[in-house]
Amino acid sequence: MSKSIKIGRQVEDPKNVIIKARIDKDMQQKLEFCSKKLCVSKSDIIRNCIEKLY
After folding, report:
1. pLDDT at 42
2. pTM (two decimals)
3. pLDDT of residue 1 exceeding 70
4. Distance CA 25, CA 3 (A)
5. Is 17 helix (H, G, I), strand (E, B) or coil?
């Protein structure tokens, strides 16, 4: 029996850096709300905000 190796899909710009941030409950609720309302991940929301500010 051979082991199958799972390989994720190939992407042009892999996101391999993890950043942790401390936020209060209010900010967490806002992030959760935006994530559900826009149907995007919390990471996508944060990345989009950084791009707009940059």
Report:
1. 97
2. 0.72
3. no
4. 44
5. coil
